[in-house]
Specification:
Length: 199
């Protein structure tokens, strides 16, 4: 059974969990403009969502959703134009708010620009004094589209300009590059050194 809509606030308050797998091609927004995705297990998105109420600091008493998304979408490298698999393993913490007006309310990254106004509540678990782990805010509802949120996280995890770390064939090209130019062209510092000694 695929859970599509939940009462997000009740889900968080009761600490419920949901998980599942769904073919990547079912996420039409995520695959738009991408090459054909693999069938079978390789083309599945595995997701899980866990609700809870914040227990400390600025999140005390706030409804939260932990979303974990794993997938292996096929993207096209913008350097060499070849398709490649881009592994996605994304975990995000979402804070549920009641309206769009609440999205800008409360703490934002702009509130702690100097790092001193953050206070100890904003430190992450390692005690670092920055607010990188603060949750993203999303508008919750009694008919919250869980899979749309999973799809959003998947879309955000895929690079806007996908590229191989090293394009296929690039390593061969690197080893074939002749080293002659480096021999022919002396270091500019060596040239300066020679000029200094001409006096």
């Amino acid at each position: 059974m695929i859970i599509k809509r939940i009462d997000a606030f009740a889900f968080a308050h009761s600490g419920k969990q949901a998980q599942g797998t769904i073919p990547l091609v079912r996420f039409t927004r995520a695959v738009e403009g991408l090459p054909e995705q693999p069938p079978g297990d390789a083309g599945l998105v595995t997701w899980s969502v866990r609700g809870e109420i914040g227990k400390s600091g600025l999140l005390l008493g706030r409804p939260l959703l932990h979303v974990h998304v794993q997938a292996n979408p096929v993207l096209v490298c913008q350097r060499c134009n070849a398709p490649f698999v881009y592994p996605v393993d994304s975990e995000v913490l979402l804070q549920l708010v009641k309206s769009e007006a609440d999205l800008d309310d409360g703490f934002t990254n702009g509130d702690v620009t100097d790092g001193h106004s953050a206070g100890s509540d904003d430190e992450d678990e390692e005690g670092n004094g920055f607010v990188s782990n603060q949750p993203e805010k999303v508008v919750g509802s009694h008919h919250f589209d869980l899979l749309a949120q999973v799809e959003d996280e998947l879309i955000l995890s895929v690079p806007y300009v996908p590229k191989h770390d090293v394009c296929p064939g690039a390593q061969a090209n690197v080893s074939e590059v002749p080293e002659e130019p480096a021999v022919k062209r002396p270091s500019p510092f060596a040239v300066l050194e020679q000029l200094k000694h001409k006096d």
